[in-house]
Amino acid sequence: MLMSALETNFGQTPSQTVGPYFAYGLAATQYGYNFNQPFDDRVALDGARGQRIRLVGRVIDGDGKPINDAMVEICQPDGEGHYPTSVEDAKARGFRGFGRMGTGTDAQNRFVFQTVKPGANAAGEAPFVGVIVTMRGMLLHAFTRAYFADEAKANAEDAVLAQVPAERRDTLLAQRSEEGGQVTYTFDIHMQGDKETVFFDV
């Protein structure tokens, strides 16, 4: 009788959110832990094909503050539009195609990836970097894309970007700057608010 009463009086319990353990577990070296991690902020190694760039940004909450324990992962082809097909292929090309970084490992709570500007992987597709964000308070990771603001013609012909409302496409554009020969593309990810980044269902 008591068990029956308990079962009917309690409502649904909240779901388990992810993190912030994920950043420490998957970006261990960056956080100073003494065990290996398979991926880090270095996507392009020696010999990678394409223009060397940095992809830099912050994960920003609804109050406009950078989040210090998010984890950002990126996936992209090299400058020729080629994704690595195996470990051997990645080593031969000097290009890993995948990167991972915890925002808490940077003094400014940024993610900073050393990579190359990707080439288009298919006809009718603009160059882009696939981006995954994992952070506390989220039940599932969020998917978005970083396109390049200086690829206006290719962006105008991209089928996926064309499905995004015109007034929101700028949330998917990484902005170029250059200093001392270093090309940087800045891509801030807004999780909520008026400037919320477009996220994709995949």
Describe the structure concisely for a colleague.
The protein is of the alpha/beta class and 202 residues long. Helices cover 15% and strands 27% of the residues.
Describe this structure in words.
The chain is of the alpha/beta class. It is 15% helix and 27% strand. The model is unreliable at 1-6 (pLDDT under 50). Strands 1, 2, 3, 4, 5, 6, 7, 8 and 9 form a 9-stranded mixed beta sheet that branches. A hairpin with a 7-residue loop joins β5 and β6. It starts with a helix and ends in a 12-residue tail after the last strand. It has 5 helices and 9 strands; from the N terminus they run ααββαββββααβββ. It is globular and about 60 Å long. It has one domain: Protocatechuate 3,4-Dioxygenase, subunit A. It has helices at residues 2-9, 21-26, 87-93, 152-156, 159-162; strands at residues 52-60, 71-75, 98-102, 110-116, 128-134, 142-148, 173-179, 182-186, 189-190.
- CATH topology tier name: Protocatechuate 3,4-Dioxygenase, subunit A
Q: Tell me the major beta sheet.
A: 9 strands, mixed
SSE pattern = HHEEHEEEEHHEEE
Q: Shape, please?
A: globular
At CATH's second level, what is the architecture?
Sandwich
Supply the number of structural domains. 1
Structural class: alpha/beta
Can you give the mean pLDDT?
89
Say what oligomer this is.
single chain
Rg over C-alpha atoms, rounded to the nearest angstrom? 19 Å
What CATH first level would be assigned? Mainly Beta
CATH superfamily: Aromatic compound dioxygenase
Beta strand count? 9
Q: Report low-confidence residues grouped into runs of 5 or more.
A: 1-6
**Count the helices. How many?**
5
